[in-house]
Design goal:
434 residues, alpha+beta, Outer membrane efflux proteins (OEP), 4-stranded antiparallel β-sheet, 4 strands, elongated
Length: 434
């Protein structure tokens, strides 16, 4: 039984030889995750918003050309005159906005939209870290469960064989044999379910990294989990309300909405443009007719009435600004809640780990005591089987508590908007290094 316990503990705390670690899996995800690739493309598209906004402040130059075949006849009382000729011409025009307030506001909106795309990209990168870590630890947890159930099935098989031999010599009843057979059959069914669950978890990770995952490195035995720094829930909540990518994105969205109100209001203002043009028209007939002109001047446009459309769009933008204000407040509250939940997840998780570590020791001692008691006749078969099950369950819960606590630490950093690759490296340092 000591050998079984040792294998259980090793399975719960370590991975196989030549295993991939969290950092390697994260780099695979950076290169292959489809959702992150979409976020990267969205960021590149967002970079063009500032360019598009600036275009409204720069000159607009256009050129046109035309050619036509003319076939005409003119008659008088004295004669008839036919005129067949080609006429052609071209024109070039430059328009430089001098005062178009809506164009200036749109340029500022373009800068904000580019900043928004950066914020959304940062959020996507944090989400990738969390998705990779969660999928990674889910695979480890599923592997832990499979190893524990496999060892439990092996132990149940040994106990079943012992019960049968003891029944043959008359030291136990047939009930002991049936109980051992029941536990063996249950462990066999649990093993099948655990294998299926492991396969699902591995496929979930494969979806992120774009390939079948290798064997994964597990946590080192006896790792020490650290409390959050700063160790104050109020500090983390304050940081989340200010630095969360969700809050940053909503702040930018609100500012864009504010500018949209200003842009629509500018529709009531006049516009002033510098307009320069040059044109040439050539109409050869009996005598060549050629005209060429150049002009430069100012063009003022004053909107008087457009069916109420400008005022309607202004009211629409004002309503959307109120919505953006409410969305920002909701984002701040959500970030604060996420920070509180994650902080409590870390602190309660650490307490749970300490309690389960003590339970692991006591469960192992209880199993040894029940095994010895069964051998001397003061314990029955079901007592040993129960002790085996309790130890396996304690080992699984301990491993899950460690994974959940590490995930809570990463989520806490994400809530404050500070989660990055260095945090992945910090968690990776807790894994078995090959």
């Amino acid at each position: 039984m000591k050998r079984v316990l040792a294998v259980c503990l090793a399975a719960a705390c370590s991975g196989g030889a030549a295993a991939a670690d969290l950092m390697q899996v994260y780099r695979d995800a950076l290169a292959n995750d489809a959702r992150f690739a979409a976020a990267r493309a969205q960021r590149e598209a967002g970079q063009e918003k500032v360019v598009q906004g600036r275009a409204g402040l720069l000159p607009n130059i256009g050129a046109s050309a035309s050619t036509a075949w003319n076939d005409g006849e003119a008659r008088t009382s004295a004669a008839s005159l036919e005129r067949r000729y080609n006429s052609n011409g071209y024109a070039v025009q430059l328009t430089q906005p001098l005062f178009r307030w809506q164009n200036w506001v749109q340029y500022k909106q373009g800068e904000l939209q580019t900043a928004l795309s950066e914020s959304q990209y940062g959020q996507s990168r944090q989400d990738l870290v969390l998705r990779v870590a969660e999928a990674y630890f889910n695979v480890l947890n599923a592997q832990d469960a499979l190893d524990a159930v496999t060892q439990l099935r092996t132990a149940a098989a040994e106990q079943l064989e012992l019960a049968r031999k003891s029944f043959e010599v008359g030291t136990v009843t047939i009930t002991d044999v049936h109980e051992a057979q029941s536990r063996f059959d249950l462990a066999s069914a649990q093993e099948i379910a655990a294998r299926n669950d492991l396969d699902v978890r591995r496929q979930t990770l494969a979806q992120i990294i774009g390939k079948e995952p290798e064997a994964l490195a597990g946590l080192r035995p006896g790792i020490e989990l650290q409390r959050p720094q700063p160790d104050s829930i109020a500090d983390w909540v304050s940081a989340a309300e200010q630095g969360s990518y969700g809050v940053q994105a909503q702040q930018l969205t609100r500012e864009i909405a504010t500018r949209e109100v200003e842009r629509n209001r500018a529709g009531h203002l006049p516009t002033l443009d510098l307009v320069a043009s040059h044109g040439l028209n050539n109409r050869p007939a009996i005598s060549t007719e050629r005209s060429e002109s150049t002009s430069i001047g100012l063009q003022l446009s004053v909107p008087l009435y457009q069916g109420g459309g400008i005022s309607s769009r202004e009211r629409e933008a004002a309503a959307l600004k109120i919505k953006a204000d409410a969305d920002l407040e909701d984002a701040r509250r959500s970030a604060a809640l996420a920070a509180r939940q994650s902080y409590l997840g870390v602190t309660s998780g650490m307490a749970q780990v300490r309690a389960l570590e003590a339970a692991r020791v006591s469960s192992a001692s209880a199993l040894e005591a029940n095994k010895l008691g069964y051998e001397v006749g003061v314990r029955i078969n079901i007592d040993v089987l129960n002790a085996q099950t309790q130890l396996a369950d304690t080992l699984q819960r301990l491993a899950r508590a460690r994974y959940d606590t590490l995930l809570a630490q990463l989520r806490l950093k994400a809530a404050a908007g500070t989660l990055g690759e260095e945090d992945v490296q910090a968690v990776n340092a807790l894994l078995v290094q090959q």
